[in-house]
Amino acid sequence: MRQRDELVSLVRLDGVTKSVTLPDDSTLEILRGISLEVSAGDHVSIVGRSGSGKSTLLNILGMLDAPTTGTVAFEDAEVGRMRSGRLDRLRGENVGFVFQQFNLLPGRTALDNVMMPLGHAKGRLFWNRRRIAADMLERVGLGHRIEQIADRLSGGEQQRVAIARALVRRPVLILADEPTGALDIDTGASVMGLLDEVATETDAALVTITHDLHVAARARRHYRLDAGRLETADLSRAFEASTLAASVPSSGAVVPAEAVAS
Ligand SMILES: Nc1ncnc2c1ncn2[C@@H]1O[C@H](COP(=O)(O)OP(=O)(O)OP(=O)(O)O)[C@@H](O)[C@H]1O
Ligand SMILES: [Mg+2]
């Protein structure tokens, strides 16, 4: 086990804000002053209401989007100062993204999709990319569907292809946006088990956005995004609230993760 002072900082956000200008010229402040450090081996969960800025935050953590103000550092190097070629390489080699909408290449097979991140790899990873991708598809339970065209797969199957694609290059930072959103409880649990397992094997950091309290609870550090601000979340209180709601027949509502008490 690593000691605290040995933790390797992977990605660090300092005072990050994100604003966009809307068509009526007004400004929407999506993120307001977020500071967060994610280290190797960390497992962080983020919950929050729809529209609270979770995907925006994940895109900034994964260096796909730049903040309006504040800084992002990857392994202590400030990302805002990097040329786009270096940034693309850094992202490709180090970050595995499970997108909320999967973002699979349409018209291509599951195998093509999972092989894609290995297309720019070097040496064995490149030459063995077909077998490595097929093995990862096997691990997400899709060994029998590798030649199927991605957009003809079911939603849950597409989600598992997206997860295999995120993990295939053994990234040190795994960013998962609602990775179980399209899965039934059992498949969701096994996919989260796989994300944990691969992250542990490579001492990778895993950041999971989720509406599911059980998924959030698998992480070691829990956060909630509320109106663009990040705060630590008390999941035990959220579980209590949801049990309470379930025991009151007239409520009829399931309390989602974003109801985490602030
Ligand atoms: N480029 C953009 N232009 C305008 N509005 C944007 C842009 N990007 C995000 N937003 C808005 O910012 C808010 C946060 O979006 P985001 O996708 O980060 O939310 P989220 O927390 O991931 O929501 P969900 O749980 O529904 O996925 C939303 O209201 C969205 O419409
Ligand atoms: Mg989102």
Automatic annotation (TrEMBL):
Keywords: ATP-binding, Lipoprotein, Nucleotide-binding, Transport. The keyword Transport applies. Residues 11-252 form the ABC transporter domain. One of its GO terms (molecular function) is ATP hydrolysis activity. The keyword Lipoprotein applies. SMART domains: AAA. Belongs to the ABC transporter superfamily. This is ABC-type lipoprotein export system ATPase subunit. It comes from Microbacterium natoriense.
